UniProtKB/TrEMBL annotation:
Keywords: FAD, Flavoprotein. Residues 1-233 form the FAD-binding PCMH-type domain. PROSITE patterns: FAD_PCMH. This is Xanthine dehydrogenase family protein subunit M. Gene3D superfamilies: 3.30.465.10, CO dehydrogenase flavoprotein, C-terminal domain, Uridine Diphospho-n-acetylenolpyruvylglucosamine Reductase, domain 2. It comes from Rudanella paleaurantiibacter. The keyword Flavoprotein applies. SUPFAM superfamilies: CO dehydrogenase flavoprotein C-terminal domain-like (SSF55447), FAD-binding/transporter-associated domain-like (SSF56176). It comes from the Bacteria.
Amino acid sequence: MKPFQYLRPTGVDAAVRDLTAQPDAAKFIAGGTNLIDLMKEHVEQPTTLVDINRLPLATVEELEDGGLRLGALVTNADTAYHPLVEQRYPLLSKAILAGASAQLRNMATNGGNLFQRTRCYYFYDTSMPCNKRHSGPSQGPAGCGALHGYNRIHAILGTESADGNVHCIATHPSDMCVALAALEAVVRVSGPQGERTIPIADFHRLPGDTPQHDNTLRPGELVTAIDLPANGFSHYNSYLKLRDRASYAFALVSVAAALELERSDASGDQISAARLAMGGVAHKPWRKTEAEALLVGQRPTPDVFGRAADALLDGAQGYGHNTFKIELAKRAIVRALSQAAKLEPTE
Ligand SMILES: Cc1cc2nc3c(=O)[nH]c(=O)nc-3n(C[C@H](O)[C@H](O)[C@H](O)COP(=O)(O)OP(=O)(O)OC[C@H]3O[C@@H](n4cnc5c(N)ncnc54)[C@H](O)[C@@H]3O)c2cc1C
Ligand code: SF4
């Protein structure tokens, strides 16, 4: 690891100023569970770390509109086990608890979780070509090692850039962000130009021809909180995570499914609202409102769920080792929706 300067501001404005003073060389650090690993591997080489743990961003607050504000520095564990999150946003609680390990969740923060970087093996190995890592000779050659390499964990959706080329097939590894996408959370940021909010759907981005950018944050901006809207789909929801081993592994495919069901007549329920987001399949949590629209007004049956799955996976493309994910993702969607509708047990 290279030597670095270490700053510990106590206010949001001071933290933003510290970062803005060296936009290319400074990084915020929160729980450190991702950034320190990347520094040890020389993938990230900041010369200044701005420790944000003393900022007043570690609270969970109820909002007047019925929603909930999660401070950026609330740990993933404290978020998942917060009574209001457990009662009103169980989908988020389940998604967080499906990730990492208890020890990591005790350190990892909500802000840091949004920014965790891809788990692509080639990204972590600075001797391999990688367009996402590449920003100069010290960080290895340009290119994409995964495209014609071992790409079992890689993306099947949203990989092509506007000119039809593929520059990066990395996935976003977060579980929490998949639930946030389904719940339509809003990210609050503070930066040199003041405060602004970013809908979670616009926070992460597809790789296009600039895969080095994971998100739409501007230089110097700090995430201060994540707002959850009032509707938490608390009765009918499921977070299904499929992975190579049952715990402490990233998702091959994950699904956040949330439904509202109404009793339409004596013969059964009808879906009145639906949310569906996927992890492990794209550079950002994958959501398509057209797929959700196919569910609304229908009875909750596997056939109906299958049509939504086909729509969500429309245009999916495998790159060899990861082609199995297309069928796996469709089956995972049907199962997650069946669990959300309580047609199948959640194990
Ligand atoms: C072995 C292992 C297994 C894991 N398994 C999973 C898993 O299964 N599922 C899953 O979802 N995650 C998993 N994780 C990832 C873990 O959830 C993240 O490392 C964690 O959420 C990052 O949070 P942090 O506070 O430690 O971030 P840090 O490491 O401190 O920071 C990460 C990045 O976020 C930036 N940052 C942090 N806070 C802010 C802020 N408020 N504003 C702006 N920028 C900020 C930092 O500059 C840095 O670039 C795993 C991690 C490890 C090490
Ligand atoms: S998939 Fe993306 S992160 Fe992985 S090697 Fe290719 S460019 Fe790098």
